[in-house]
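One-letter codes give the sequence; each number marks local geometry. A record appears below:


***
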Amino acid sequence: MSVQGINKHAVLPPIISRSDKEFLERMQRYIITETQRVGCNEEGPADEYYIIYRNVFDKVIEYVTAYKSILTSIKKEYDAFIETIKKDQRTAFSLHGRLKVLAGEPTALIYHRKRILQLQEKMKHIENNSSKIQLQIDEIKQLRAEYDAKEVQSCTFCKDPSKPIPGTVFYLKYLRGVLLWFRGLLQWLGSLLWCEFDPWSGNFHMLWMRPKNK
């Protein structure tokens, strides 16, 4: 056999065993079934697509014995690389959210400043109204005090007309006593003059006969 013939024979595809062929067919069916089940394709979603092929890789490592160590190392590097990409994606998503927040802050700041100015204007208006109301209250209090003072001065002795003026009760009793004394005196004088004193008319009436002594 010539060298050329040996080289031609070397490039022929390797003959796989029946068990290997069945294993590859099972893996191919697994990939098709899982991608259809989760509804993904080669363009995405990336997470589901990555999980399917990672499971296939694990099954291949379990099936192959001669290349198990090297395939395990390859898978570890592959998983680390994928995890780095996913971490970078999460970081980029977080930064994008922060960027949106920062972009919206100037608008929110302008709104809050405008709202502060409006509230300050309302506070000034309320304070002015409060000052005016307080002045009106003070004026009403002053007018009330002046009115009460005048009322006290004008009604010192006439707050209750039904009540006697202090000191007059004793004076009236004294005058009644004096009046009775004078009446008694006049009656005594009338008896001496044979006349009778009429306290109602204040006159003397002559008697025809002198009253008998008891």
